[in-house]
UniProtKB/TrEMBL annotation:
Protein family according to the UniProt entry: Belongs to the class-IV pyridoxal-phosphate-dependent aminotransferase family.
Modified residue annotations for N6-(pyridoxal phosphate)lysine: 206
Keywords: Amino-acid biosynthesis, Aminotransferase, Branched-chain amino acid biosynthesis, Pyridoxal phosphate, Transferase
SUPFAM superfamilies: D-aminoacid aminotransferase-like PLP-dependent enzymes
CDD domains named in the record: BCAT_beta_family
EC number per UniProt: 2.6.1.42
Any GO BP annotation: isoleucine biosynthetic process
Protein name per the record: Branched-chain-amino-acid aminotransferase
One function term, GO molecular function aspect: L-valine-2-oxoglutarate transaminase activity
PROSITE patterns hit by this protein: AA_TRANSFER_CLASS_4
Function of the protein: Acts on leucine, isoleucine and valine.
Pathway annotation from the record: Amino-acid biosynthesis; L-valine biosynthesis; L-valine from pyruvate: step 4/4; Amino-acid biosynthesis; L-isoleucine biosynthesis; L-isoleucine from 2-oxobutanoate: step 4/4; Amino-acid biosynthesis; L-leucine biosynthesis; L-leucine from 3-methyl-2-oxobutanoate: step 4/4
Amino acid sequence: MATPDTAAPFTFAHQPHPSPMAADVRAEILANPGFGTAFSDHMVSVSYDEGKGWHSAEVVPYGPIPLDPAAAVLHYAQEIFEGLKAYRLADGGIALFRPEANAARFNASAERLAMPVLPEGLFVQAVEELVKADKDWFPTVEGGSLYLRPFMFASEAFLGVRPSKKYKFLVIASPAGNYFKSGAPAVSLWVSDYSRAAPGGTGAAKCGGNYAASLVPTAEAFSRGHDQVLFLDAVERKWIEELGGMNLFFVMADGSLVTPPLGGTILPGITRESLIKLAREEGLAVREERYSLAQWQADATSGALIETFACGTAAVVTPVGKVTSASDSFVIGSGGPGQITQKLRSRLVAIQRGEAADTHGWVHRIG
Ligand SMILES: *Cc1c(COP(=O)(O)O)cnc(C)c1O
């Protein structure tokens, strides 16, 4: 793997969109953005060539990218991505939440997929450049944000199983609504018989291939009337791992929390890590330890467990109300959002939006 040969500060060429979206059309989108369907006027593109390193950083009009039919990503799925949000703060400024953590995780994913690492400063600057270029793309709805999707893929044209020698790093932006407002109904989970990740596999990497493999189990959950799929460990098929794209926390009646430990098969969520810190600051004990489906059911039934929630950047914190497997079904607490779940969610959102003191240096202002 070639080491990156670029150094901060990075120079980005800017090619403004010749015909950005009309203001009235954009306003309509921003009043009701949904999630992941509308995209801002620009995108960032940076190229990598073996021997040359990262080069040609630019902010260009959002649009289709030329791709050779033999591009390695289309055949061997050498692709990784990230997801983070830019928020409009209470004082009118703009901030990212822990973008350095996304940059570090991106490089961990890159190493697992035999891809070149990207200087963390280049990752963060690329996101900043796009947010600044498209600062008029923040949703006007309460709780809205600008969702950023950095990703890297193998672009070399060849058929053969080896790491590509060429890559593209892109960042696109999509206005996002607040699809899980506080008081949102709790979700219903389907415990899948499929595995998401095995020891030694790519479970800890944020790669598109993991998601491709989760589509059938997710479709199965939907067709049975559930909202999300829950994966158990691939070895013993008893330990709870995570959802298709969110980590899980269990809240006990004594106020302590349990979350499955990172061990290579779980995606190390930045929301997860942030909530562990916040919960401990609230005086709640948090244990990163294995928790079985059977124990979960027993604890929910006995009342030893009172709440469960899922967490991730997109939905922040989502209460879990019901769990169903091929053989069984049980309800968590009252089946609705619990108090500790709502309190932790409010704490995190207040920090992200600049409404509460940022004592951890998590809020990365860019204007
Ligand atoms: C991205 C992701 C998460 C959540 O990570 P955050 O950094 O909190 O957004 C959890 N699980 C999977 C599989 C993911 O891809």
